[in-house]
Amino acid sequence: MRAFLDNLGLALSTLRGNPLRSLLTLLGIVIGASTVVAMMGLVEGFRLRVNSDLEGLGAGSFQVQKWPVTFGHVDRAKYNRRRDLTREQGEALRSLPHVAHVSIEAYHNGRPEKIATRERATRPNVSVGGGNPDYQYANAVTIAEGRFFNDVDVTMGGLVAVIGADVADLLFPGESPVGKEIRLRSTPFTVVGVAERRGATLGQSQDNWVIVPIDPYNRVTGRVTNHNIAIQATSPEDAGKAQDEVVARLRSLRGLRGIEENDFEIYSNETLTGTFNSFAAVVAAATFAVTLLALVVGGIGVMNIMLVSVAERTREIGVRMALGARRRRILSQFVIEAVTLSLLGGVLGVLLGAGGAVLAREVWNVPASIPAWAVLLSLLSASGAGLVFGIYPAIRASRLDPVEAMRTE
Fold it and tell me: What number is the average pLDDT over the span 389-400?
């Protein structure tokens, strides 16, 4: 331990003697360490935000859609060839033993709408859809004021609507929207309920929406042929059984044989989380590739500066060896110096990366949470680079002939 502390002291004194040279040498190490910490902090922050936001889908709920939910390239031609999901197919799922609610929903390809009253109007960015009373349960909608539309409203063809909190705040500031009139493409609808505020998912508001019964929606906006189907199982524990039953029933209704793949997609909290984790894994792999390249560049810089240091201190090495210093001690001195230099770069990189992630979170409201393993990985990688690239200069120093070394000017 005494020898180690002595070598560490010598290493630090050498770094203090050449601060600018040491700092320039560390640039590659700093970039590598800061990249790991910053990127992993952002990815971890997004992962936590996604997991939190997806809880809003509701326990035991899942959805059936024609299109997949994925990150990256989608073969649109393949999915365009799929047949539409019809209302009749959705209705056929109600009789399944582990299905409690079936919400059949109509949207015009996510096309936003403008909602207006006589005094005010929203921008044309409101998500408007048609649904049935089960929408409330399958999508975990909590009513803050009023009620959700019911089977009587649907049967009577009532022009009623439930609106999100953002729409309520914009169109009816400081007053209750219940019983008031809103207009969708000039058609009046009576507001019967306001949903509880849900906040944002990945920066997108979950409160900027209007839902109306599906038949009036088709009459006002045009008939929708493809539907989303949201399903709530009889209990969260039965969600897996409900999914199996839904898949089997839809395959039968859509005439799919045993070896044919499903021509519809099912997603839930777990599948969406898995999709995001796959995306995060790609980001992590790219980050590690950049980090590895930066560490190699930084390691080469460390090796170069250590070779220069050995050349500059050849006489010092010769004197120490003549006074009884063993080769092993010389070797360990230069290895510790290289590792210390790299570790210092790692610490600077961690501070820089963490500072960048925190700045993004505080200034631009980007979710960031720096995992401890990313900090530890950065420091270990930096130290490892110093060890690997510092070995050769250290061996070269330890193998110097003392007599020849002392003759060096």
Answer: 89
Buried/exposed code over 362-391 (b: 16+ C-beta within 10 A; e: otherwise): eeeebbbbbbeebbebbbebbbbbbbbbbb
- ∠ at Cα 41 (37, 47), nearest 5°? 150
Among candidate residues 226, 199, 228, the one with its CA nearest the CA of residue 211: 228
The residue among 148, 160, 150, 167 whose CA lies nearest residue 206 is 167
Bridge partners of 162, per DSSP, are 193, 211
Per-residue tokens: 210: 């209007």
| φ and ψ at residue 43, rounded to 5 degrees | -65, -45
Least confident of 12-21, 110-119, 184-193, 231-240: 12-21
CA 59, distance to chain mean position in Å, is 21
Mean per-residue pLDDT over the chain, rounded: 87
Contact assessment for residue 56 and residue 202, using Cβ atoms and an 8 Å cutoff? no
Q: Is residue 178 within 8 Å of 194, Cβ to Cβ?
A: yes
DSSP annotation of 82 reads S
Question: CA-CA distance, 192 to 212, in Å (whole number)?
Answer: 10
Our CA angle for 251, 89, 64, nearest 5°, is 70
Pick from 5-19, 130-144, 360-374: least confident: 5-19
pTM: 0.67
Closest alpha carbon to 373 in 299, 284, 309: 284
**d(Cα 225, Cα 109) in Å, to the nearest integer?**
11
The alpha carbons of the chain give a radius of gyration, in whole angstroms, of 32
User: Tokens at residue 76, please?
Assistant: 């649109």
